[in-house]
Amino acid sequence: MKKKIALLLVLALILSFIPVITVNAATTVSYQKISTLDELTTGKYVMVLDSGYAPTVYDSTGWLLVGQPTISGDEITEANATGYIWDLTVDDTGVALTDANGVSIKPKGTNTNGISSGSHAWAVSCSDGAFKFTGGTGYTVTLAANKNSSYKIRAYKDSTASNTTNYPSDFTLYKLVETEGEEPTTEPVTEPVTEPVTEPVTEPVTEPVTEPVTEPVTEPVTEPVTEPASGNVYTKITSLDELSTGKYVMVLGNGYAPSTLSGSWVLSGTPTVDGDTITEANAAGYIWDLTVDGTSVVLTDANGVSIAPKSGDTNGIQSGTYSWAVTCTDGTFQFAGTGSDTTVLAANSGSSYQFRAYKSSTVSGNPNGYPSDFTLYKLVEKTAEPETTMAGVSYSIRLIEP
After folding, report:
1. Which residues sit opposite 398 in a β-bridge?
2. Cα angle vertex 170, ends 166, 176, to 5°?
3. φ and ψ of 80, to 5 deg
4. Minimal CA–CA distance to 264: which of 306, 304, 319, 301?
5. In whole angstroms, what is the distance from residue 56 CA to residue 79 CA?
6. Rg (Cα) of the chain, in Å, rounded?
7. What is the rounded CA–CA span in Å between residue 262 and residue 79?
8. Which residues in the chain land under pLDDT 50?
9. Which pTM value belongs to this model?
10. Which of 138, 333, 135, 371 is CA-nearest to residue 253?
């Protein structure tokens, strides 16, 4: 019985050093529809036309590229907003519009069709829950999409933008709403151990009970050792051996990369590349899923839509699951049609470097006009879950008999 009492005391002592970890709810993020000027304040937004198209980034050729984010009722989830998030800075002078790459935009001129980069205070109005952005004092232009140019966006003369069927300019705004949670917290148990013996002693104690000697306890650490998490990166690959099913950013030598399928084009933009890597933030909007089977690859865009050649020896692109033939030359990758599809996935320098499948003869005859060599950056996931350890704690237990 004396040994049983001693062991219980030792066990209680050990348990008193184990930390208690409390995990609270994480922060949730979504973009909620607003419908009045009173709700319009400085913050992050997704701006969606009635057609479902939304601007992504400014393109140096003088357009705002577009895509179609998924909307659920009056809400856009954080994942579906990726690539479409704009910063709107609101003050008494108007609204500054800054794209998903951090580039602010302004009209090309006071009464000229076009768009350029630079700070500008746009005038904003709201009618029936839809927002319109105009040039402001001294300007006679409106921010609008062009239906005949795959709904890409720029400033148009008010006289042109009045044709709202071909130049829609009413935006529904979805504003970032964050519900804050707390980080996981770890608290040591500091309460004294009381009444460790849970059963009565029914036999007489005829000799002294010797307390157990516990030695040595060396610097018990009761706070968790937590490793910080690291962000994911996309790392350059240069051979077919490295090409496997996963997530990629595909970049041409001139810096353009495909984003999403829109009508008869795959839209493009210029993600920031740092050496042989692209950060997760800079990859947003350009992430493709490549499903690899030998030298065949299914290409799925940033919206989850797979692409296919238009068919045969014809220029064009369409949605559909399709196995492209992939080759690698000098560290760059090429994607070609198979069977009767004698085409190559390439950009068109005369159309803001948007992508589609072009006849092989067209691409080979003018490789600068129709670039088709892609550098691939593959997702490398860094998982670093917080770990709680009892560093530096050791116990040596010795029971002394009387």
Report:
1. 213
2. 135
3. -75, -20
4. 319
5. 14
6. 31
7. 19
8. 21-23, 186, 189, 192-193, 197, 201, 205, 209, 213-214, 216-218, 220-229, 387-397, 399-400, 402
9. 0.48
10. 371
